[in-house]
Amino acid sequence: MKKIISIILIFLLLFPACFVQAEEKEKIEEPSGLYALCSCLMDADSGRVLFEKNGEEQRAMASTTKIMTLIVTLENCDLNEVVTISQNAARQPDVQLNVNIGEKYYLKDLCYSLMLESHNDSAVAIAEHVGKSVENFANMMNEKAKELDLVHTHFITPNGLDAENADGIHGTTAVELAKIMRYCIKESPKKDLFLKITGTSSHSFSDLDGKRTFSCRNHNAFLNMMEGALSGKTGFTSKAGYCYVGALERDGKMFVVALLGCGWPNNKSYKWSDTKKLMSYGIDNYEYRTVWKEPKLSPVFVKNGIPKSGEKSDLAYANLYVKCTKQDKEREWLLRNDENVHVSFECKNKLEAPVKEETKVGRILYSLEGTVLKEYPIVTDCAVEKLDYWWCCQKILKQFFL
After folding, report:
1. How far apart are CA 233 and CA 119, in angstroms?
2. Pick the catalytic residue: 118, 179, 231, 271?
3. Which of 3, 73, 113, 327 could pair with 122 in a Cys bridge, judged by C-beta atoms 3.0 to 4.6 Å apart?
4. Would you call 63 a catalytic residue per the annotation?
5. What percent of the chain has a predicted confidence (pLDDT) above 90?
6. Which CATH number fits domain 300-401: 2.60.40, 2.60.410, 3.30.70, 2.60.120?
7. pLDDT above 80 for 55
8. What is the pTM of this model?
9. 6 is catalytic
10. Parallel, antiparallel, or unpaired: how do β-strands 300-303 and 350-352 relate?
11. Tens of pLDDT along 338-369?
């Protein structure tokens, strides 16, 4: 008996150890040791934040601003329009294209100057052309931010130079900067043109008089660092530090990384280290999975409703279904290997006649760690008329004459 007890005790001691080992093996470590004060990794398909560090903290964003400058320009103007350089544009601080007052350029060429070399004078020239003034163009940028439901983003300048006014600092958060990039590459009607400009390695052009020629080289080194790199924009001011926002697509997965306050001189390479670490984390640990589960929905009782049988002694019910498309059911979600989507539904157990077809009676929820990924309405599949005095009279008369 002592031997049996000893064996049982040994087994009980070993079993928890084995169980813990299995858990540790399955656990996925999130990125650590990042240099950026604020960072975000986003699934560009769904907009879900996969990782963030101080992701909702507002900070200065430097020239990452210019992705918004470009997309607002693309959505409001023809790139073959001619831009005349003002005194205000010509006197902007470095980095500059060094345009002169009165010179004329195609808007397209200034957009390449804006994104490849991050020229501040080109940014102001574009803003004055598109918005008629820098202030009006900033209003256009802020309106676009509202459309994207950004609540911690505020634009004052088109080039990202540090600024502040009565409404706050010129700044954003890592999460909202990622949302702007996601819009630019996934949702904007001008996304293809945005990707073409920001992914170009070099661009040469002249002013319209042909007196001066320029050559711009893309300073987004990330385009050549990882396979599938799509787009991005660097930035730096003394207040913002080094900043970056970029996108990558590989194996059918698309990610956006946003970094704010990622080091100061002499730490220029920190942003590339953080970007590669976050992108690699996304590539290595996330895969697409279908999560749809067909719910078993019972018919809902309809009080004072006309039964399908037409017999007053019977009860009235309405069948239910989830209102969604075949694509909804086949949709795949980018999930980490250790993530499981929780499916639940809320539904009324009684309705009052009359009931219209496709009356919403509940919803089915797909949630991950308490956050709702998607919800679909549960509706009735038919109308149920009210059992009233006239229906009863018609029923009695019908029975009498038959």
Report:
1. 12
2. 118
3. 113
4. yes
5. 83
6. 2.60.410
7. yes
8. 0.85
9. no
10. parallel
11. 999 999 989 999 999 899 999 999 999 999 98
